[in-house]
Amino acid sequence: MTTIPAERVRADLAEKAAAVLRHNDAGGWTKAAPALYPHQWSWDSAFVAIGWAQVDLARAAAEQERLFSAQWANGMVPHIVFDPATPAGAYFPDHTRWASWLSPHAPQTAPFTSGLCQPPVHAIAVERIWEVACGRGGADAELARAHVRRMFPKLLAWHRYLAEQRDPDGTGLVTTYHPWEGIDNSPRWDVVMRRIEVGQLPPYTRRDTQHVADSGQRPSQDDYDRYLWLVELLKAARYDDAVIRRDYPFLVGDVFLTAVLAAANAALLRIADVAGAPAAERDEIERWLGRGRAALAATLDPETGLTLDVDRATGEPIRVTTFAGVAPLVDPGADPALRAAALRAFDSADLTGHPALRWPLLPSTGLNAPQFQQRNYWRGPVWPVVNWLYWHGLCPVEPQRAAALRAAALDALAVVRFAEYFDPITGEPLGSHLQSWTAAVALDWLAPDR
Ligand code: 9WN
Question: 350 CB under 6 A from ligand 1?
Answer without folding.
Answer: no
